[in-house]
Design the sequence.
């Protein structure tokens, strides 16, 4: 029987890598995106070599009703990979309240409401998975990324608590916490600044999006059948 996975933020660098890996694993995919239509079209073209069903869903998860657009287009569902969101760099005291509210809605409110709406389907099936792409900064915190660290920390708390509540329903809840990954999210930093970051990482380099996707693939697989409530750090030894 074909299994369906929802990937939010599928048009971004990590989301695309996850989609390609899960398609290779044999899943059918709901591919959420917001504005990047050209990227999602390119991804659909790349996925045409695979046998699954690939369904694009447009929704703005920074808005109050954004998650509802996704829910309305979900039918069969076996797993959610919540990957949406951008970082925010700057001093906390300079943070605009509207930006703070937007970051909270994208990273906290929307994934909670999305899970709340989809969980009844999984409970009826007595099986399912929820996986959040959080961040190293949710584990350890970062100066000049206070809001981002806070909302990513909230995602980690959500994973740890929901996993306990859903375990006897056969539903596993986990997270992947990447460190610095080679995506457009780091485009605001100069090559010199990135070299300094690489110097702090024991493995001496940034992560490739494929390495995050491989971690997702593992956690969704039967090889991880006894793993729930865990945050898998994929950070080159930057935080242990």
Sequence:
């Amino acid at each position: 029987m074909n299994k369906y996975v929802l990937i939010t933020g599928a048009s971004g660098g990590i989301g695309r890598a996850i989609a390609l890996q899960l398609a290779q694993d044999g899943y059918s995919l709901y591919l959420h995106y917001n504005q990047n239509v050209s990227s999602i079209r390119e991804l659909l073209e790349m996925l045409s070599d695979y046998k699954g069903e690939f369904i694009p869903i447009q929704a703005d998860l920074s808005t109050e009703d954004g998650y509802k657009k996704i829910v309305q287009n979900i039918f069969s569902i076996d797993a959610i990979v919540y990957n949406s969101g951008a970082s925010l760099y700057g001093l906390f005291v300079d943070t605009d309240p509207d930006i703070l509210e937007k970051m909270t809605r994208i990273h906290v409110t929307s994934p909670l409401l999305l899970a709340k709406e989809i969980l009844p389907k999984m409970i009826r099936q007595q099986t399912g998975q929820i996986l959040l792409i959080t961040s190293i900064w949710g584990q350890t915190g970062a100066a000049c990324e206070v809001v981002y660290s806070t909302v990513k920390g909230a995602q980690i708390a959500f994973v740890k608590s929901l996993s306990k509540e859903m375990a006897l329903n056969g539903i596993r809840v986990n997270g992947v916490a990447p460190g610095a990954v080679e995506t457009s999210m780091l485009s605001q930093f100069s090559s010199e600044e990135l070299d300094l970051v690489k110097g702090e990482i024991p493995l001496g380099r940034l992560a490739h999006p494929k390495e995050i996707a491989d971690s997702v693939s593992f956690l969704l697989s039967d090889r991880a059948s006894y793993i729930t409530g865990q945050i898998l750090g994929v950070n080159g030894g930057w935080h242990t």
Notes: The chain has a mean pLDDT of 95.
